[in-house]
Amino acid sequence: MYTDDQLRMVGESAARSIAERSKWIHRRVEQITFPLPSDRVYRRDISIDFTIPDLAPIGGDRNQGTPRYYVPLSLLERWPPLLRLDLRNAEGVPIPLLTSDQNAITDAALLRAIARDVLKRSGLSLNEELEEQVNRLAGLREFDRQPPPRERVLTGTLLSLIPPSTLGRRSPESEALADDDLFVELAGAMPRTTLLWLRVEGKIGDREVVKLSYDAPFRINPRSRSVFGLEPLIVDFQAPHLGGSGSYHLAVSVPPPLMISDSALLLMQPQTAQGTPHVHQPVTGCTSTQQSEDFVSSEGVLSLYAHNEARDARFYVSGPRTGSQGKVRIATVVERSGLIRPGTMAGLAITILLAAITLRLGESLKNREAVVTTLLVAPALLAYLVVRPADHVVVGQYVGGLRRVLILLGLLPLTSAVALAVAHGWTCALKLILAAATLIAAGSTLILAAAWWKGGSGEMRPFSSSKAKVS
Amino acid sequence: MTPQELDQLAQAFEIEPTFEFLSPEGSVGYPQDLHELDINDVRQMIAESERYADEVKALATANPATAD
Question: Would an 8 Å CB–CB cutoff place A287 in contact with chain B?
């Protein structure tokens, strides 16, 4: 059990380290997978390779046993709690997490220490009112279970954006704090997020690896044409650490029968609260076919990589980019050999069968039993495509339209068989029913054929295609 | 990547995604709340604040006696 003083010491000692995180956070590797087919969640497995920075060990005395440190490695949203959060060290041993109250004490101590440093440089000091505000931002005084209202987020983050002419004169202390990028960005993030302090044992300067994994929800914005396989499905991955420190690796694996047809990465200019947050100016980017040459900025060299193969995509960024905003996208299509090709073949067979019956209706009526039996076999053949083990919810969303087309194709011979069975003889109505069924079957087959043809075309690679369309 | 290719890629990123895989994480130096807020709302709030300040200033200039 840690005392409040011990936690405060940890927080205060991290003020300098967090400003120099690019020096001690070396690599972050993230993997995105879909292990739960029926849930609208996905899993992120993350490993962070870092050197223990110059921090105060928890408990104080560095000479008794192996020192233990809490290292601020990421920011986590306060609410809702993460699903299946698992923290482990390099040996796979579970690592305990600070409680929310302990976290608030440590966060507040860090923010106060940064504020004191900033004010000291300007010959000022942290007064009681500002200290109270800083504590509140870190959740020390009021811990809300719900995200704070927008006004409070604005108070924390955007004060520095609103010109003094609008708000009136600020105190010299507020001006100094609003001028410091690190303070504004950390304070701005604090109302909704908390620092993830990971416990490690070792010595300052030791290289460590920690692993964390959790499930996170995803959002679906249905699009009409992509459910028929006529357009690629565009998937965005929020990856804040693209703009972080050290090298960043991201691997994405989509569930079958989806395939990744294209992948792209775009890095925007740093969006600091002091800069121009409303300008989303791309700095550099790359796609799976257009690899970016190293981008040279005043701060150093940025290297980017994106590649996709079958169901996997990989992204990589390294170089100075702290505060940048990065975007990762993939385009997915349905594997043509799994659903679309057999569906097209079946559609073609059904169309030909119905057309033959319609054109030779007289003879079909003479061999009514054989024709009806043949028509009943077609839906059974299609059933194996439609009735399959439950797909992942992501897949279901994508192939839903194609499944409906296949169901329609299965119903057409069934309807035609019923019409033939109950008909007393050649009638105009029967001919019309069969002709309509043939036309609908032809239309459905065309949709499937278009999906098959488009599956291999450049349109399914919207980022790499030189004629990228904007909807 | 040429500026034209970069511009083209940025345009391809304008297409609305079908799926958005959100991250509950953030990195220090990445102003998450700024990113989540619609910048047009922010602009509108700033514009309204500035308009209000201008109105107050105009009122004070027109009638100094009621400036307080």
Answer: yes
**Phi, psi of A364, rounded to the nearest 5 degrees:** -65, -40
What distance in Å separates the CA atoms of residue A313 and residue A249, rounded to the nearest whole number?
11
Distance CA A234, CA A348 (A): 30
CB atoms within 10 A of CB A301: 11
Query: Residue A69: inside a domain, yes or no?
Result: yes
Parallel, antiparallel, or unpaired for β A312-318 and A247-253? antiparallel
Q: Domain end: A212, A235, A253, which one? A: A212
| Among A227, A221, A254, A235, residue whose Cα is nearest residue A396 | A227
- The reply to whether residue B49 touches residue A162, judged by beta carbons under 8 angstroms, is yes
Does any domain span residue A192? Answer: yes
Q: Which residues of B touch A75 (CB under 8 A)?
A: 25-28, 30, 32
Q: Which band of pLDDT confidence, cut at 50, 70 and 90, is reported for residue B15?
A: confident
Structural domain contains residue A14 = yes
Nearest chain B residue to A218 by CA distance is: B21
Question: Which spans in B1-68 are helix H?
Answer: 3-12, 32-36, 39-62
Pairwise CA distance, residues A275 & A284, whole Å: 18
Range(s) of the domain holding residue A436: 336-455
Counting the structural domains of chain A, the total is 2
Residue range A344-365, pLDDT digits in tens: 988 999 999 999 999 999 899 8
Using an 8 Å Cβ cutoff, are A241 and A263 in contact? Answer: no
Contact between A353 and A375 (Cβ < 8 Å) = yes
Residue A203 placed within a domain: yes
Chain B residues in contact with A223 by the CB 8 A cut-off are 16, 18
For residue A123, is it left (φ>0), alpha (ψ between -120 and 50) or beta?
left
Tell me how far apart the alpha carbons of residues A456 and A230 are, in angstroms, rounded to a whole number: 11
- Say yes or no to pLDDT of B23 above 50: yes
Give the residues of chain A that fall short of pLDDT 50: 142-167, 273-277, 467-471
Distance between CA A405 and CA A177 in Å, rounded?
61
* Nearest one of B54, B29, B31, B55 to B42, comparing CA atoms: B31
ipTM: 0.71
